[in-house]
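Milestone M4 deliverable, item 7.
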Amino acid sequence: MKHKGALMLLGTAILWGMGFVAQSAAADAVGTFTFNAARNFVGAAFLCGIIESRKRLGLDRAPDAPGSGFTARTLRLGGIACGIMLCLAANLQQAGIAAYPPNAAASGRAGFVTATYMVMVAMMGVFVGKRLHPSVIVAVALALGGMYLLCVPNGLGSIYLGDWLVLGSALGYALHILVIDCFGMVDGVRLSRLQLLTAGTISLVLALLFENPQPTQLVAALVPILYAGIASDGVAYTLQIVGQQTTDPTVASIIMSLESVFAALGGWLVLSESLSAVELVGCALVFTAVLLAQAPDLRSAGNS
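Output delivered:
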């Protein structure tokens, strides 16, 4: 099927976007570190099942096996490095969502602020010798304007702590993408499992140090934890990995950036959240910036 990869990535965007709804719901019942520890371990367990299924189907790429292209040491290094960055980004994001006041439309707002990581990745290309394309400069300006309308619709006094935390998480996700790019030779599913185990372990230690995890809290947040662990972490990561195998990376990143749109739609449909007209214009500018930041790579892909 010609567009199979693109459809998989669209599914990824939907699952990730709706994940913001699960995170918003969980923020009222369980602590940030406890939630992320639980969801990461659930996701890792799900990927264990995926790996076992791949073994039975003869599709598994084990480290150090003939033709695998990577070693166990590389897998460990990549999984730990990616897990540390994922832990940083995910906990900042969840803390930001929890910090928003009830009337802030946390799901949609966090989704669009997080989407700025796409612009950050394009900007970071300067540090690895890439020329800063004029469209990227315009994208940065649009993103700043959109962020202002989204986060400061009533003046500087309306910036929330949650906005700063989620913006920090966007930087974490940008760095996470760059770290993943260093380990492209490693089997993606195995890398995802190890990064989830790493992020989950760190989050668990932080939860025990700074929170007081209770079984009743986990039960209260069970549905969001299962959704975030299985759908957002397990299924979505798998769809992303498989989908990107047959889709141009730039096209893939544009499709996955739609998660911000689905985050806003999910918050509206499930949590009855709403954004003002000014905030919606801000969302549109951020989304345009995300697409524009990918234009140079997309043009290069089309000419190759």
